[in-house]
Specification:
The protein is of the alpha+beta class and 220 residues long. The chain has a domain at 89-160. The chain has 5 helices and 4 strands; from the N terminus they run H-H-E-E-E-E-H-H-H. The chain has helices at residues 5-44, 51-84, 148-160, 171-177, 214-219, and strands spanning 89-95, 106-112, 118-125, 130-137. A 4-stranded antiparallel β-sheet has the order 1-2-3-4. Strand 3 (118-125) and strand 4 (130-137) form a beta hairpin. The longest helix has 40 residues, at 5-44. It is rod-shaped.
């Protein structure tokens, strides 16, 4: 079979196209291989390691991280308990203790923690001297008689504070306490009928619907 010039040109063109395609595939493969090598070095820190070794190391780091988070949570809980007893609410009322004195130099100041425990300080300013009194407080009240100004100072101290939010629960506990989505009404199967253990018909079944027993059939 003789090959014409046209057939030779077609064969050469096809060979050239196949060669170009092969070169393109080789270049793409080399690029993909380089990317894979860079990713491998990034994951394995430039060292040749087994995948299982790296996975084990990652699991150990996650376990260490959980331990660290647990310690931080415990420390935060201790700080939270400590803060409950710290002075965080302050209220002050200024007034004139005597009618012939002005300037409102007398005052009552309440210093409270979150529980309302603390002290109320009252200074009575006079012409010749100033007297100061301290009364302990428990839950916003005192076993000593409180004046109107002292009670107002305690109320202002309560109003000046705000409750701190409790630390968030761990993610596992949030998942356990999360409400489960209700199943669609159409997908809920009907409850199975109750079985009678003493030969009695199931609850809700009429006498006409009872299955015939052997004794009934013999008697009929």
């Amino acid at each position: 079979m003789e090959l014409t010039d046209t057939t030779l040109l077609i064969a050469l063109a096809a060979s050239a196209a196949i060669s170009v395609l092969a070169v393109g595939v080789a270049v793409a493969s080399l690029r993909s291989q380089r990317k894979l090598r860079r990713a491998y070095r990034a994951v394995f820190d430039g060292e040749t390691r087994d995948v299982m070794v790296v996975l084990q190391r990652a699991l150990e780091e996650v376990a260490d991280l959980r331990d660290d988070v647990g310690e931080v949570r415990a420390y935060a809980a201790q700080l939270r308990d400590h803060d409950r007893g710290a002075i965080s609410r302050v209220g002050t009322v200024r007034f004139d203790a005597f009618g012939d004195l002005g300037g409102m130099l007398s005052f009552s100041t309440a210093l409270l923690d979150e529980r309302g425990d603390g002290v109320v300080l009252t200074a009575i300013n006079g012409r010749e001297h100033t007297r100061m009194y301290a009364k302990p407080l428990e839950a916003g009240d005192s076993r000593h008689n409180l004046s109107e100004e002292e009670r107002e100072a305690i109320e202002r101290a309560h109003a000046s504070g705000s409750e701190l939010a409790e630390p968030p629960a761990p993610a596992a506990r949030r998942r356990r306490n999360a409400p489960q989505p209700a199943a669609p009404a159409g997908d809920v199967p009907p409850p199975p009928p109750e079985r009678a253990s003493d030969g009695q018909p199931p609850r809700g079944q009429h006498a006409a619907e009872r299955p015939a027993r052997a004794s009934d059939e013999v008697g009929s």
